[in-house]
Automatic annotation (TrEMBL):
One of the record's GO molecular function terms: ATP binding
Domain ABC transporter: 32-216
GO cellular component terms, semicolon-separated: plasma membrane
Lineage: unclassified sequences, metagenomes, ecological metagenomes
Organism of this sequence: marine sediment metagenome
CDD domains, per the entry: ABC_MJ0796_LolCDE_FtsE
Pfam families, sorted: ABC_tran
Name recorded for this polypeptide: ABC transporter domain-containing protein
Keywords, ordered alphabetically: Transport
Length: 216
């Protein structure tokens, strides 16, 4: 290679490195960042585009509400941010880490350590009590003794005004009570990011306001 060619190659490497540093610094500014995210599902032989080129930036301490009509892809986007699914194309960053290409086990670790998720239909374990449902993520995190897990779970139930329903299973709770248990469970491991799919949908206005205050 000639000297001119070497100089050109060095310049390209330097520019590429500088761009990489700038990109990393930019991404690190955000708690959540979505870049040109696409998600396509196959229904039989038909490709259905749920998301087309979504961009999103969320900084630390931001409180963001995603609104749109039914079928517009809100839950799909939340599932991608929450590490429950991966995009067909594009990137999702959580605290500067690109989670788009992680393995299932790596995503499970991210969900356990960093994300609190409230599902639209709660997804409480039906054979467990409210208290036991909240203790599940605490068990996988391995942060507490059994007594410590029970105390943490009871404190969270008290936070959503359900400590007197601790030993009831989901079938013995109303829809709004199940939703509050799901919210308490999402807070169990003090996550860096909370993702909630219609968190006040089954709550009366007073309880809904209480939950919104907790989220803030």
């Amino acid at each position: 290679m000639t000297k001119k060619g070497i100089d050109k190659e060095r310049k390209n490497i330097e520019e590429s490195s500088e761009d990489k540093i700038l990109t990393e610094e930019y991404v690190d500014k955000f708690k959540i960042r979505a870049e040109n995210v696409h998600k396509t599902y196959l229904l039989g032989t038909t490709a259905v585009a749920a998301l087309r080129g979504v961009d999103l930036n969320v900084k630390d301490q931001d409180f963001v509400i995603i609104m749109g009509p039914s079928g517009s892809g809100k839950t799909t986007l939340l599932n991608l941010i929450g590490g429950l699914d991966t995009p067909t194309r594009g990137k999702i960053f959580l605290e500067g880490q690109n989670i788009s290409m992680l393995s299932d086990n790596q995503l499970a670790d991210i969900r356990r350590d960093k994300i609190g998720y409230v599902f639209q239909f709660y997804n409480l374990l039906p054979q467990m009590t409210a208290l036991e449902n909240i203790m599940v993520p605490l068990h996988f995190a391995g942060k507490f003794s059994r007594r410590g897990k029970q105390k943490r779970a009871m404190d969270l139930l008290a936070m959503v005004d359900l400590d007197e329903r601790a030993h009831h299973t989901p079938s013995e709770l109303s829809g709004g009570e199940q939703q509050r248990v799901a919210i308490a469970r999402a807070f169990a491991n003090d996550p860096a990011i909370c993702v909630l799919d219609e968190p006040t949908g089954d709550l009366d206005s007073k309880t809904g306001q209480m939950v919104m205050n907790l989220l803030r």
